[in-house]
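Incident log, support desk, overnight shift.

02:14 A customer reports that sequence design results differ from what the structure should imply. Their input is reproduced verbatim below. On-call engineer (initials T.W.) acknowledged and began investigating.
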């Protein structure tokens, strides 16, 4: 039997058994996903056609174009630049800077800091899709702007968001998704999002205990919650790597357990995306499964949860 480290192997009172234990073993483990990928089944009410739904079920991601018009995209770009250039924003705790250059890497809770992004986050064109795929009313678990400036933008290493949200935030099930809206051209040279198709069907239990207040360093460079080389190699050999490239306004939608990352940007062209994370109301976070203290509200919403209004809900 594989030895466990720490005290986490004791069952938590008042909570069901953890189907996705991570950061408690001395060796990496894998298990099959225990949750549906798509939680709705009435195709007549689906905001996406069957081919797209089948692609998402199999691969764990979609590229959606033409949801926003040119004026909407231009307005998002203006607001993105405004936040990046505002020294008051850079000095806030919601802003994460690059470890080496000091440039802004991410700004969290952008829907609370900017009215335009708040409207985009609640746009029915996005909410309808999230509600259908998750089979529930949804709320914003997390929002952020990711900046990757030219020449100095650092990489985001391979990871499953769910692994972190489960261990560090207490997200119970794989019933969340991200929508990344490209605000600059995302091309092969400026560190686009990279995804491993089909990896969302497997949960990789990572090695390494989580330090207290891990978010203070992990949002700059992730050292725990990182999958092992062999698991990544197996996934890539099975399905390859798909770069999420596209022009401004493309929506890159992906499942919470999809393995993804991005290279550093040594090109002159910046790469900036708006990330919106939708979680099912029934899947709201509770106590972190990793036994750490709760992360701040701007990283993981737990005290400001409310269903988003939509013209559709299954």
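02:41 Re-run completed on a clean worker. Output:
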């Amino acid at each position: 039997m594989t030895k466990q480290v720490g005290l986490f192997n004791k069952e938590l009172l008042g909570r069901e058994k953890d189907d996705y234990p991570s950061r408690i073993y001395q060796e990496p483990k894998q298990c099959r996903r225990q949750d549906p990928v798509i939680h709705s089944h009435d195709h007549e009410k689906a905001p996406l056609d069957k081919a797209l739904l089948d692609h998402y079920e199999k691969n764990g991601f979609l590229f959606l174009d033409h949801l926003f018009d040119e004026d909407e995209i231009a307005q998002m770009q203006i607001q993105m630049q405004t936040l990046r250039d505002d020294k008051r924003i850079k000095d806030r705790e919601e802003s994460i800077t690059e470890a080496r250059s000091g440039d802004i890497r991410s700004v969290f809770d952008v829907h609370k800091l900017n009215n335009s992004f708040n409207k985009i986050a609640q746009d029915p064109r996005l909410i309808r899709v999230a509600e259908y795929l998750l089979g529930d009313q949804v709320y914003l678990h997390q929002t952020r702007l990711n900046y990757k400036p030219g020449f100095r933008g650092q990489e985001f290493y391979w990871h499953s968001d769910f692994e972190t949200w489960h261990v560090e935030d207490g997200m119970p099930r794989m019933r969340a998704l991200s929508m990344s809206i490209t605000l600059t051209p995302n091309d092969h040279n400026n560190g686009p999002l990279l995804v491993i198709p089909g990896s969302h069907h497997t949960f990789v239990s990572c090695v390494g205990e989580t330090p207290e207040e891990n978010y203070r360093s992990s949002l700059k460079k992730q050292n725990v919650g990182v999958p092992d080389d062999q698991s990544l190699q197996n996934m890539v050999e099975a399905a390859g790597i798909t770069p999420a490239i596209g022009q401004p306004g493309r929506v890159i939608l992906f499942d919470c357990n999809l393995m993804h990352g991005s290279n550093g940007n040594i090109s002159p062209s910046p790469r900036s995306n708006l990330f919106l994370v939708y979680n099912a109301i029934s899947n709201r976070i509770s106590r972190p499964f990793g036994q750490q203290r709760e992360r701040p509200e701007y990283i993981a919403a737990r005290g400001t949860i409310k269903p988003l209004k939509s013209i559709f809900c299954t």
